[in-house]
Specification:
mainly alpha; globular
Length: 246
Amino acid sequence: MNVFLKLTRTELKLAVREPMFAFFVLLFPTILVGILGAIPSFRKADPALGGLRVIDLYVGIAVVLSLAFVGIQVLPAVLATYREKGILRRLATTPVQPAKLLAAQLAMSMISAILSAGLVLAVGRLVFDVQLAEQFAGFVLAFLLSAAGVLAIGLFIAAVVPNGKTGNTVGTLLFFPLMFFAGLWAPREVLPAVIQRIGDFTPLGAAERALHETMTGDWPNLLSVTVLVAYVVVFGTLAARLFRWE
């Protein structure tokens, strides 16, 4: 456990020292909320959104965005780079087993996502009076399931790509369509019904819907929970079977 904590702390330090990571994972989701919240019309209730404001919706979307950055873009590239450079292979010859580094990287990703989400929620509440999750336990459940699903996909990508550059490329190619279904370019509520239905079966679309429902006082719907659990099981199993240390 002591080795695991030291590795996690080291991974956090390395990540924070990387400007792109610090900006896009920790700061950009909150900056996005700040920019959108500064638009006067986005702070007015919209009957088409069930009386909610656009900024109310984008706080949840920004939380999903932080998960996407961590799990889809950062995690695959880092782990594939470690394998490409032989770091995992060398660790296998020491008391620090490579599995511990993998666990530390996952812990670092989760901590980063929690910090980013906390910052988004704090700014949304304090600056734009966005209500915090009325169903807090449901919000925690939805967040953990969403994070697990996204990280499972990231591990699968890291397992099958040959190097870090390819991992970054694949993550980027997946990032934009997945965030579209999560409502980044337009809230899901204003998208055509068929697009919303497709989004319900994507990891980030299911995550956004589950988080949105908990913020309005409900528990995550059964469909979103089932979809997220399926992504965890399927991609987690595939990653475990296909992951190579060298």
